[in-house]
């Protein structure tokens, strides 16, 4: 995806995950906002105008699905810091999931488990390749944790799927984690 579209995509994510107030919109409890209203406010705030076809082009060209357009609304699929409820109910996860992180964080995670830090949920990856990509944002040689997801689910931890290969959980105790 070219630099221009990447910049717009980051602004859309920033708005829908963290700061809808910055462009003067409110999200509903699931993080949704009317698509036309979103586009209107976004364009009033930022110089570069966007449109529904442009958003759909970004969605087609992205390495990851970051937002969804449904029934005339748009929402971020994951990554929120403002409180939102998952739109999809919890589901039994695959046998294992993954989490990529820095060496510094990993030293704490082996004792404390995964915490949501500044976001609403802990983010887990469906496969190792995705976890490596996530971890590489902050560490050139990230540490990869394998998560015993089904065991955790049997013990009562709720796993929320997204359409992005990202699974959301409230927290993940260290007992279900191992470095691979
Ligand atoms: C770490 C991006 C210390 C955790 C990505 C991570 C993802 C702890 C950092 C999505 C900890 C939080 C989310 C503990 C967890 N002590 N550090 N107990 N527990 N951490 O950005 O999972 O490209 O909030 O390991 O690709 O890195 O923007 O979470 O390093 O899918 O669409 O605290 O955001 O997606 O960092 O990334 P983040 P994340 P986009």
Automatic annotation (TrEMBL):
Origin: domain of life: Bacteria
InterPro entries: Ptrans_KptA/Tpt1 (IPR002745), RNA_2'-PTrans_C (IPR042081), RNA_2'-PTrans_KptA (IPR022928), RNA_2'-PTrans_N (IPR042080)
Pfam families (alphabetical): PTS_2-RNA (PF01885)
Family the entry assigns: Belongs to the KptA/TPT1 family.
Name under which the protein is recorded: Probable RNA 2'-phosphotransferase
Function as written in the Swiss-Prot or TrEMBL entry: Removes the 2'-phosphate from RNA via an intermediate in which the phosphate is ADP-ribosylated by NAD followed by a presumed transesterification to release the RNA and generate ADP-ribose 1''-2''-cyclic phosphate (APPR>P). May function as an ADP-ribosylase.
Keywords: NAD, Transferase
This enzyme's EC code(s): 2.7.1.-
Broad class of enzyme this protein falls into: transferase
């Amino acid at each position: 995806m070219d630099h221009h579209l990447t910049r717009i995509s980051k602004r859309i994510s920033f708005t829908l995950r963290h700061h809808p107030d910055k462009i003067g919109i409110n999200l509903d409890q699931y993080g949704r906002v009317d698509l036309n209203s979103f586009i209107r406010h976004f364009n009033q705030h930022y110089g570069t105008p966007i449109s529904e076809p442009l958003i759909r082009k970004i969605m087609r060209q992205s390495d990851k699905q970051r937002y969804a357009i449904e029934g005339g609304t748009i929402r971020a699929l994951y990554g929120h810091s403002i409180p939102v409820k998952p739109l999809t109910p919890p589901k039994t996860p695959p046998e294992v999931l993954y989490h990529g992180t820095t060496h510094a964080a990993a030293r704490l995670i082996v004792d404390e488990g995964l915490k949501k830090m500044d976001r609403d949920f802990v983010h887990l990856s469906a496969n190792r390749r995705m976890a490596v990509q996530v971890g590489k944002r902050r560490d050139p040689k990230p540490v990869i944790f394998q998560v015993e997801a089904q065991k955790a689910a049997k013990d009562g931890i709720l796993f929320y799927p997204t359409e992005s290969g990202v699974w959301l959980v409230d927290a993940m105790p260290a007992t279900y984690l191992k470095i691979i």
